Amino acid sequence: MNKKRKTLPSFKNEEQERAFWESHDSAGYVDWSRGERVRFPNLKPSSRAISLRLPVDLLERIKTAANKRDVPYQSLIKIWLAEKVDAG
User: Under a CB-based contact definition with an 8 Å cutoff, are residues 2 and 13 in contact?
Assistant: First the structure.
């Protein structure tokens, strides 16, 4: 299917581009049928180390819960935090 694509406007900054894509469908600008899968093997997720003081009893309970689920306790903490934040 040879469909005429719209020309992308020029953007002064990322904020302007973000606002554009929030209100426009990319289908009119990009031929997604020609898209290819790519891999980024060296891409590291952005994260930041923090220090968090927890009562010993609470930490032990978290570690026990993590053991039951066979996951590292720090991963379980991240999962629980994300679930709580997403729930509102």
Answer: no
